[in-house]
Amino acid sequence: MIERKLLIQQNMKLSFLEKELPRIEKGITYTMITQKVINPYGFILEAIKKNGTIENLIIATYAINQKAISILMNLLDDNLVKDFTLLVNCNIKFQMKGKDVELLAEEKKRANFHIIKKYSHAKVTLIDQGNVKIVITGSGNYSENPRHEQYTINDDEELYNFYREWIYD
């Protein structure tokens, strides 16, 4: 028999991540519609602010801008993220216009930074902070975008493992 979890859905429109992200509870799905320019790395910064060091950060994104790359590399350098895997589309060379060279150089410099290339348009962020396993899915790439974006956030180990297995498969 399959055990099913009943999740309470909370829908909200947010202007700033910090208003709601610190309240994430296990078993609740949070759906967010952004109304301003928000880069998904804000979720990572809020998770560090609330729970401390990230043991394992896994990001699947179609595109990533220079600011996000710099922030993520700084988090590795400051040991606020211990291990970081970035899944990007195989067409990164064409999509990111030169950033692929920088990302590959960063990967060579760091034993705790790994790049996976797949044909993917997914936008998934997995944050492992020990007993906290945050899963963020949505429409936003790791870039400033003035469009409305949607995100779903969960603290759910089973969902975390589902996405983790897909990314590393």
Explain what this protein looks like in three dimensions:
- The chain has 169 residues and is α/β, with parallel strands linked by helices.
- It has a single domain, classed as 2-Layer Sandwich (Endonuclease, Chain A).
- Helices cover 30% and strands 31% of the residues.
- It has 5 helices and 8 strands, in the order ββαβαβααββββα.
- The protein has an 8-stranded mixed β-sheet with strand order 1-2-8-7-6-3-4-5, sandwiched between helices.
- Strand 3, helix 2 and strand 4 form a beta-alpha-beta unit.
- It is globular.
Global structural class: alpha/beta
User: Taking strands numbered 1, 2, ... along the chain, how are they ordered across the largest sheet?
Assistant: 1-2-8-7-6-3-4-5
Return the CATH architecture.
2-Layer Sandwich
Task: List the helices and strands in order.
Answer: EEHEHEHHEEEEH
Shape: globular
**Tally of contiguous helical segments:** 5
- Alpha-carbon distance between the two ends: 27 Å
- Overall mean pLDDT stands at 82
Main sheet record? 8 strands, mixed
